Structure formats: structure tokens, C-alpha cells
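REQUEST ID: PR-0412
SUBMITTED BY: lab tech R.K.
PRIORITY: routine
TASK: structure prediction, single protein chain
INPUT:
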Amino acid sequence: MDDKLENKLVKQFPNLFSDYNKDMKLTAMCWGCECNDGWYDLLYKTCEKLEPLVTKWLKENPKDFDFKPRFSQVKEKYGTLRIYWTSATDKMYAITDTAERKSAKVCETCGNSGKVRGQGWLYCACIKHTKPEDRDNLEYLENEYDKKHKKIKEKKNG
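STATUS: complete
OUTPUT:
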């Protein structure tokens, strides 16, 4: 993920990203968010739901700081977003599970609608960011049809 976007997440959600840039012997967050920018909005919205839950957990469990819920890794795996925790509540896990499922329909490059594609190495992409060998014929034809009709509309209106 772009450093500026990643830093926004870290600054906005300090509890979730409290292991950010820590030693690799302690956390995989030493590598930051290992995904593309297209999932930024999805990750941000997920963090908006989670940060208050972690804050609440900290108030209710002040002596259990070593078990504080926080991200241990954020990455792409098998074409979807994966969020791993040091520990978390069932509700926190449910929120991240939902985000991971949603990511299978969001282009990891641009954030538009996409789907998981590829053979061997999977990735989630819209038609624009799909490798030519991973496009199915119908989808390719639909995309070309949409482009052609957009040009026709532009000529009529312009």
C-alpha cells in the first residue's frame, strides 16, 4: 500500500496498528500493509468499526495489556484481503471476516468492482486491471460493447 495511505490508517487507528513498524521478531506488521491501494477504502471502513471496539476492550481490561487486540498482519492472500490479529473478540473477528469476503469483489488496484482471477497466483481485479489471459470472452465483449456505446453517446451529446 502507498505510504501516505498506510500512514493515514496508522494515525487514525492507533490501537489497531500499534505494532506497526515493530521488530519482525514480534510482528508481521513490520512490513506494513502488504496489499494494493484499491482496498484502502474497504480497510478504512473496517478499521472505523474496529477501533472503538478495541478502545472499549482496553477500558474493560486495563491489566491485560499484553493481550490487547491489534493487527499482527494485513495482506493479500489468494486474491483477497487477510487481516490477522494478536487476539480479538468474536465480534472483531466477524467484522474482519466480512471485509475479507467483500474484498473478493473489489479490484485491489483501483477499488472498482472486481473478481478473483488468475491461475496459480490469484488476484482480485476489474476488467481494466485484469491480465489479458485471465479475461473470459463474455466479459471482454461486454467491456468493448460498453466502450463503443459510451463513444456513441459522447458523439450525440458533444
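NOTES: Residues 40-60 form the longest helix (21 residues).
REVIEWED BY: pending
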